[in-house]
Design a protein that fits this description.
Length: 589
């Protein structure tokens, strides 16, 4: 609730109720609407708390009535008047203040406004870039305000929940050292150190580990993070993490603690998160859903058809299986009567996702089978497809034959595409932990191993001895929190041995010299009494987007950027003067 006890206001607009009847009040805010009914002028006055109707009567308002004749939407005014109940038949149940109004006795124009670039109304059909260009006007709209208020409540609940559990809020540096963490750094030249650069942090990862080594035991931070990468609906160049780290914990300790915190946070947004959450190993998530962030709100799971086609004479399937690949499929209920052109469009989706092609069989509603490959399949194979995928008349079977990873990933893309095309009902919240990720993933283009989460992830104890010989087989103590197909957060247990950390960096192709240059301070710290520790980072923007029912994180950020990373409001990024460049020893080529 807003505290109104200042010079311009005795109350805020949205708090007035029938209990305030006969009270004299002073209000200040923006003119939301003005209606001239001949003898009376009605003004809806708006501030952050809500809207209240103000009545200007020429018999009682005096000079205030003259003022009301000239005011326009979005003018900033101050009024004084008396609260009364609305006359019979004029109560507005759609407004929180709808049973009262303020009879104005004086009015002061605090500032005028030009005609706004768009209406300050809910649900407007205005270009997003225009709304971002005039974000300070857009913020006056109720859904924008509600999203930012929700973000505030969620953030404060995180703070209270973590403080209750003994966590310390600690700020870590924004200007720091550039280290390879997966994405490109934003770099900042140093005026005092010519030729040297700071980097904006992609995450506080190394610092929170240092806090554990420093004995802080439990740390959190509402942390600003920066990544110079291509943008999308759930990604911005600057974003906010709820960053958490704990000492002397195993993986289960982190997961159980976070489930309790998330239950409290989502309850703040009026959602009941059922805990404990289900756990799904990475391998099973990929096998069943083709994604490490599966949406569990609908079925259409992936099923293996390799055994069905083990002796197939269809060359595409036989060749894939002989090369060590797999044949898998999904059954899209109700798509069996799609047109050929609509099904062919799915082939391009599969190609774009990395497949060599898409095989399909349409089982029409009248019992007919349509497929360009049906003539190559035996009756036994067709029966196996029906049985394995539980096919019914009116269904469409989509199949991929390729390397196991490609098959899973492509079908995962097709699964989501078909859910959209078929408008499958996806309601409520389905959350789970995806755990036990591979520690490394092979980059075929660069012919090197990359870290699946980050280079500081602890491998399974039983895989430590064989890391160098079988890096692809090593699993790690790692976990992602997934809600409705979105990765809301991810974390790991950390390597707390300097020797093991050096080995992990070497597998990633980081030489001893580079390891010392980039991570020497961490390696030194690990050799000076590092406790077992682990943690997690949650995407605050994504979480609030989900809780608000928004489609983009831009809807829940006060001053967002466009998909190209630009700020239409300020004009950033922009050029700087030659003097500024000279100060930091740079020239623009």
């Amino acid at each position: 609730m807003l505290d109104a006890r200042y010079s311009f206001r005795s109350h805020v607009c949205g708090d007035l109720r029938s209990d305030n009847t006969e009270e004299t009040v002073t209000l200040a805010g923006w003119v939301a609407k003005r209606r001239d009914h001949g003898g009376l002028i009605f003004v809806d006055l708006r501030d952050r708390s809500g809207v209240v109707q103000c009545v200007f009567d020429p018999d009682t308002s005096g000079e205030a009535f003259v003022t009301a004749e000239r005011i326009r939407p979005e003018w900033v005014i101050k009024i004084e008047g008396t609260v009364r109940k609305r006359p019979d038949g004029t109560v507005n149940p759609g407004m929180a203040t709808g049973d009262v109004e303020v009879v104005v006795v004086s009015a002061t124009v605090l500032n005028m406004s030009e005609t706004p670039p768009f209406e300050v109304e809910p649900g407007i059909d205005t270009d997003e870039t225009t709304r971002m260009r005039y974000r300070y006007v857009d913020m006056r709209r109720p859904e924008v305000l509600a999203a930012i208020q929700l973000r505030d409540r969620v953030t404060q609940r995180f703070r209270k929940s973590l403080e209750h559990r003994g966590f310390l809020e600690v700020e870590t540096p924004i200007l720091t050292k550039s280290t390879p963490e997966g994405a490109r750094d934003f770099i900042v030249p140093s005026r005092m150190n010519p030729g040297s650069f700071y980097a904006l942090p992609q995450s506080p990862q190394l610092f929170k580990q240092l806090l554990m080594i420093g004995g802080f035991d439990r740390y959190y931070q509402i942390a600003r993070c920066f990544r110079d990468e291509d943008l999308r609906a759930d990604r911005q160049p600057e974003f906010t993490q709820v960053d958490i780290e704990m000492s002397f914990v195993e993986q289960e300790d982190v997961l159980l603690m976070m489930e309790d915190v998330m239950h409290e946070v989502m309850k703040e947004a009026d959602f009941d998160l059922k805990v404990p959450l289900p756990r799904l190993a990475y391998s099973e998530a990929m096998d069943r859903f083709g994604s490490d962030r599966p949406d569990l709100r609908f079925g259409m799971e992936l099923h293996s058809l390799t055994d069905v086609f083990a002796t197939s004479e269809f060359k595409v399937f036989a060749g894939a299986i002989a090369a060590g690949g797999r044949v898998k499929g999904i059954c899209a209920r109700g798509a069996g009567d799609w047109s050929r052109s609509r099904i062919d469009a799915l082939n391009q989706v599969a190609l774009d996702a990395g497949a060599k092609g898409l095989a399909w069989i349409a089982f029409t509603g009248d019992g007919e089978v349509k497929s360009p490959i049906a003539k190559f399949l035996s009756e036994g194979e067709m029966a196996g497809v029906r049985e394995t995928l539980h096919v019914q008349p009116g269904d469409l079977v989509l199949m991929i034959a390729d390397a196991p990873d490609v098959t899973n990933e492509v079908l995962g893309v097709l699964r989501l595409r078909m859910a959209d095309e078929l408008e499958l009902k996806r309601e409520g919240f389905e959350a789970l932990w995806v755990v036990d990720f591979p520690m490394f993933k092979w980059d075929a283009d660069e012919e090197r191993w990359n870290a699946n989460h980050h280079p500081f992830t602890m491998p399974f104890v039983e895989h430590i001895d064989s890391l160098e010989e079988k890096p692809g087989d090593a699993l790690s103590y790692s976990y992602d929190l997934v809600v409705n197909g979105l990765e809301i957060g991810g974390g790991t247990l950390r390597i707390h041995s300097a020797e093991l950390q050096r080995r992990a960096l070497a597998i990633l192709g980081i030489s001893e010299e580079e390891a010392e240059e980039k991570f020497g301070f961490l390696l030194e710290a690990l050799s000076l009494g590092a406790p077992p520790h682990g943690g997690i980072a949650l995407g605050l923007d994504r979480l609030v987007m989900l809780l608000a029912g928004a489609s983009s994180i831009r809807d829940v950020i006060a001053f967002p950027k466009t998909s190209s990373g630009a700020d239409p409001l300020t004009g950033a990024p922009d050029t700087v003067s030659q003097r500024q460049l000279k100060d930091v020893h740079l020239k623009v080529d």
